[in-house]
Amino acid sequence: MARGRCTFRQQDVTRALRATVAAGIDVQRIEIDKDGKIVVVTGRPREEAEESGENEWDRL
Predict the structure, then answer these.
(1) What is the domain partition of the chain in residue ranges?
(2) pTM
(3) How buried is residue 16: exposed, middle or buried, by Cβ count under 10 Å (0-12/13-18/19+)?
(4) What is the pLDDT along the chain (60 residues), one digit of tens a residue?
(5) What span, in angstroms and rounded, lies between the C-alpha atoms of 1 and 27?
(6) 16 close to 39: Cβ distance less than 8 angstroms
(7) CB distance 7 to 35 below 8 Å
(8) Contacts with 34 (C-beta within 8 Å, 6 or more apart), sequence order
(9) CA–CA distances in Å: residue 46 to residues 22, 38, 41, 53, 60
(10) What is the pLDDT, as a whole number, of residue 45?
(11) Which of 27, 40, 59, 60 is the most exposed place for a label (fewest CB within 10 A)?
(12) What is the DSSP letter of 44?
């Protein structure tokens, strides 16, 4: 069985990641669906926020 057509390229993900980091935003994870849509989930990981004793509402 042949693989389907690739819907995204590594450079697309790299560009999205670099742009987000350059904007000073923490990246938690990147999600890519089977249609090729790239979603960058931002924010600090929950464990890191808990270790610092910071409440998510403190940043608002």
Answers:
(1) 10-53
(2) 0.62
(3) middle
(4) 677 778 889 999 999 999 999 998 889 999 999 888 999 999 876 665 566 666 667 766
(5) 35
(6) no
(7) yes
(8) 7
(9) 22, 22, 13, 11, 16
(10) 62
(11) 60
(12) -
